[in-house]
Specification:
Length: 274
């Protein structure tokens, strides 16, 4: 008799089981919405599916009467640009800082405590400082993502570099490799896929900082729109926006995973079904 932990679902069963919680949550929402609307047809807390359809049509398919722009498209574009730029800068900085911290003892001794302490600073607490220093424009919003995400990736990469087997480093030195050569030929090839993993793990955090910054100071963006319409209790707009943000976060995570599988097959061997 096989133990439950050793039983693996087929591909079709895995897809079914993955979709089942979404179906159950959707059914619960529909039932709860119908009950509330039956008691109060003007209730705004749990809008009907028809209300969602009307809101999506208004925000995504019809131009704004005031600006002539498609608000949903503009909000999505603005948020993705800010998120992408912030993540890109964070990844580059993390590589430049994390590798020396994990590989060079003098650098680790001098800067590791500072990086550890800086990573404990709540980024939201310094958001007002960013707005004072950089103004209310794009730089402050991207800066919040960078400040919030970079220390997390740096510390992860530092640990990953430190975990590289010492035998590899010793053999490279025996063959005459300099510190720079070892970084290029030994460290970087092994760290790149781990960088992708680190970015994937911090995407959720990056979205939190992005939405927070847009909610405080922005004229467009997914976070801006959610906090703009909340004063009217427009749940028919808020919930689709939240669902869209969730979908985008899932999509980016999925794409990064597939890119990692494609670029580094040696690293992802046996992980394709995870």
């Amino acid at each position: 008799m096989k133990r439950l932990m050793n039983l693996k679902p087929s591909k079709a069963t895995a897809v079914f089981l993955g979709l089942l919680p979404f179906f159950i949550a959707g059914m619960f929402y529909i039932i709860a919405s119908d009950i509330r609307l039956a008691e109060n047809p003007t209730d705004k807390l749990l809008p009907s599916l028809a209300s969602f359809s009307e809101a999506i049509d208004r925000m995504a398919l019809q131009p704004s009467k005031r600006t002539g722009e498609y608000l949903f498209l503009n909000d999505t574009s603005a948020s993705i640009q800010r998120l992408g730029l912030g993540i890109l800068i964070s990844a580059v900085l993390a590589m430049l800082i994390g590798i020396p911290l994990g590989f060079v003892p003098f650098v680790r001794a001098g800067f590791s405590p500072f990086v550890a302490a800086f990573s404990m600073v709540p980024p939201m607490a310094i958001l007002p400082i960013l707005f004072i220093v950089f103004g209310m424009g794009e730089l402050a919003k991207v800066g919040l993502i960078v400040i919030g995400v970079t220390p997390l990736i740096v510390r992860d990469l530092q640990q990953r570099v430190a975990e590289i087997p010492a035998e590899q480093i010793i053999k490279a030195q025996t063959l005459g490799g300099s510190t720079w050569t070892i970084v290029i030929r030994v460290i970087l090839p092994q760290i790149f896929p781990r960088l992708f993993d680190s970015v994937r793990l911090t995407l959720g955090t990056a979205w939190i900082f992005l939405i927070s910054a847009e909610a405080i100071a922005a004229t467009e963006g997914l976070g801006y729109r959610i906090f703009l319409v909340r004063r009217y209790m427009s749940m028919d707009v808020i919930l689709p926006y939240v669902a869209w943000i969730t979908f985008l976060a899932f999509l980016f995570d999925y794409l990064l995973k597939k890119i990692t599988y494609k670029m580094f097959p040696w690293y992802t061997a046996g992980k394709e079904n995870e």
